[in-house]
């Protein structure tokens, strides 16, 4: 059975000897500059974080989509930074896989030849399937024991006593409601949605009433989202998603519900 564990303090998973990340969005700074924000590139910081997360054990890197930020088209920043980024990573990892995300049009232009480009329908390693999350996975991926997705940039929304809202990136982990359906003869036991690796993206709250999650799988009714747990990057288990829901702006004032005790937990 494959061992799946989050890396402490970093939005990355260790799946046996593979490091798994998603949503790099290299080139985001160019997009923000076009909006009037003058920012330096943080691509080097992300590369250093990947090396830190890999430690001494990870020999494989799996990027589950959205390497680049621009869609459609590409920026000078992406052309300048993505090839060198993956060249340097190739010196650290024996194998690098990139699963196509919805932002990865033309990604083969940017990646060294030894980087394996996987289809948007996903890939498997052992009994774990990996997909970005913007499209339906293949039947092979959905027959895995666990499904790992990105795309949503999951975060948890908090509200304090004076009405101030803050968000923190989080993991979303839960189980499927059923073992099969009309589309797939076999479904995974559980799923994990990974936080965006690029910290500048912030996150999209997964605990606000009325705000839909992204992607066909998360909106299919196949997942038990109410019983799914939210975990902070330091390993704190915040509890069930259903117990953490707060009202979104479209539904009126923000309201916290009793979230229950916080606890640390490992993935099993």
Characterize the structure shown.
With about 270 residues, the chain is α/β, with parallel strands linked by helices. It has one domain. It is built from four helices and 18 strands. Strands 7, 8, 9, 10, 11, 12, 13, 15, 16 and 18 form a ten-stranded mixed β-sheet that branches. A hairpin with a 5-residue loop joins strand 10 (about 155-160) and strand 11 (about 165-175). The radius of gyration is 18 Å and the shape is globular. Residues about 250-268 have low confidence and may be disordered.
The N- to C-terminal Cα distance equals 10 Å
Which ranges are low-confidence, i.e. pLDDT below 50, for 5 or more consecutive residues?
A: 250-268
- Percentage of residues in strands: 25-35%
User: What is the total number of structural domains?
Assistant: 1
From the spread of the alpha carbons, the general shape counts as globular
The pLDDT mean sits at 87
Which structural class is indicated by helix and strand composition?
alpha/beta
> How many strands, what sense, and barrel or not for the largest sheet?
10 strands, mixed
Helix content: 10-25%
What gyration radius follows from the Cα positions, in whole Å?
18 Å
Number of helical stretches of at least 4 residues: 4
Order of helices and strands: EEEHHEHEEEEHEEEEEEEEEE
């Amino acid at each position: 059975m494959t061992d799946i564990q989050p890396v402490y303090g970093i939005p990355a998973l260790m799946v046996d000897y593979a490091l798994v990340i998603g949503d790099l969005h290299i080139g985001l700074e160019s997009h923000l500059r076009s909006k009037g924000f003058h920012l330096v590139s943080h691509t080097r910081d992300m590369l250093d974080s990947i090396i830190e997360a890999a430690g001494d054990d990870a020999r494989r890197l799996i990027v589950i989509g959205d390497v680049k930020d621009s869609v459609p088209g590409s920026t000078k920043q992406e052309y300048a930074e993505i090839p060198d980024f993956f060249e340097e990573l190739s010196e650290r990892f024996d194998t690098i896989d990139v699963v196509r995300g919805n932002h990865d049009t033309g990604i083969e232009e940017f990646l060294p030849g030894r980087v394996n480009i996987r289809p948007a329908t996903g890939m498997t390693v052992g009994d774990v399937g990996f997909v970005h999350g913007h499209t339906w996975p293949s039947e092979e991926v959905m027959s895995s024991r666990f499904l790992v997705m990105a795309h949503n940039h999951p975060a948890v929304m908090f509200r304090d006593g004076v009405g101030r809202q803050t968000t923190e990136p989080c993991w979303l982990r839960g189980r499927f409601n059923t073992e099969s359906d009309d589309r797939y003869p076999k479904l995974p036991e559980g799923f994990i949605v990974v936080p965006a690796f690029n910290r500048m993206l912030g996150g999209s709250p997964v605990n606000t009433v009325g705000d839909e999650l992204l992607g066909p799988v998360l909106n299919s009714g196949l997942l038990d989202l109410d019983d799914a747990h939210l975990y902070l990057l330091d390993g704190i288990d915040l509890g069930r998603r259903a117990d953490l829901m707060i009202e979104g702006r479209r539904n009126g004032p923000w309201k916290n519900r009793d979230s229950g005790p916080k606890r640390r937990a490992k993935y099993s």
